[in-house]
Amino acid sequence: MKAQVFRGVNQLSYEEVPIPEIGADEVLVQVRVVGLCQSDIKKICYPLYEPPRIFGHEMAGTIAAVGERVQDWQVGDRVVVLHHIPCMHCRYCLNDNFSMCEIYKTITTTAGFIPSGGGFAEYVKIPGHIVRHGGLIRIPDHVNFAQASFVEPTNCCLKAVKKAQVTPGQTVLVTGAGPIGLMLIMLVRYFGARAIATDLLPSRINKALQVGAEAAFDARSPELVKNIHACTEGFGVDTTLLAVPSDKAFFQALDCTRKGGKILFFAEFPDEVEIPLNPNILYRREIDLMGSYSSSYRVQALAADLVFNQRIDIDTLISDRYPLRELPKAVEQARNPTPDTYKILIEP
After folding, report:
1. Residue 76 belongs to a domain
2. What is the distance between the alpha carbons of residues 315 and 322, in angstroms, rounded to a whole number?
């Protein structure tokens, strides 16, 4: 089969590799669509992982083979593949910190080499633990593979919105109106709250308004804080969701979030970034700082429902599709987006 093998920083090699052999409790899936995620781009462009690996994790496809002990699944079934499933019984899982679970971190889908997701290949192997514990979701007939590939990123965004306890009537600032920021806006609206967005690109500011933001501003505007306070009767937003790894965006969040409000870090910052902060700002204003990383098993069913029943407009987020052999070109476009670049899908 063909695969894009990570051979080092900024080195993707379009290669012929063996189709993974499956065990008795495993499943082989033919990948039909895999989303290009910002985390994939970081893994490819920075020295974070030892090669060789095959990345890619926002997967939808068709079951091509099943092990002899696999129940409830058969060849030809159309499925969403979730690349991580927690153990459900460790201390982290019992506290709903599923993404901190060691099983969640170490058992993953693979197309060969060091298991690393494996979606950037024609076929991917699903370990027995993931098969047995809800890591395959059947795709309804009316849903296409491109739409289905959004279940995993929707889960991640939904986890963040749930963790921030967004409720009807609140006002939420979303910094960054790329594909993730736009999805956060949709989810904020779904839960009955008002969304305000910021971005640097005029096209993304307009896109934020199109998907439901009540207001959207240029993040570089000297009037930004004034404008956001004007939208909230001088009160400030209840919650800020940081969808860009920017220290400037964080300090804007401090200025725009009301006393007693929340700031949630959704984007991953470069490790070398340090943000100086006077702790009395948090103490006196009772600002809650929190982070949300990866997905949550708790919201898996709701994420699938939101996508499959079109409760959020997934199709409007898709801007580009590339064949697998052009993955490097897709990565380059994601790193240097055009005004119309949003979600990029890869179709092996």
Report:
1. yes
2. 16
Structural domain count of the chain: 2
Q: ∠ CA 165-198-298 to the nearest 5 degrees?
A: 25
Q: 136 and 117 in one domain? A: yes
For residue 271, pLDDT over 90 is answered with no
pTM for the whole structure: 0.96
Kindly provide the b/e burial profile for residues 157-181, where b requires at least 16 CB atoms within 10 angstroms of the residue's own CB: bbbbbbbbebeeebbbbbbbbbbbb
Amino acid at position 300, single letter: Q
Average pLDDT of every residue of the chain: 97
- Residue 159 domain-assigned? no
pLDDT score of 270: 85
Distance CA 156, CA 176 (A): 16
- CA 283 – CA 267 distance, rounded (Å): 24
Give the pLDDT confidence of 208-235 residue by residue, as tens digits.
Answer: 999 999 999 999 999 999 999 999 999 9
Nearest-angstrom CA–CA distance, 247 and 37: 21
Q: Indicate the residue among 250, 276, 291 that finishes a domain.
A: 291
Last-in-domain residue among 275, 291, 307: 291
**Is the pLDDT at 102 greater than 90, yes or no?**
yes
Structural domain of 96: 2-154+295-347
Answer yes or no: do 53 and 112 share one domain: yes
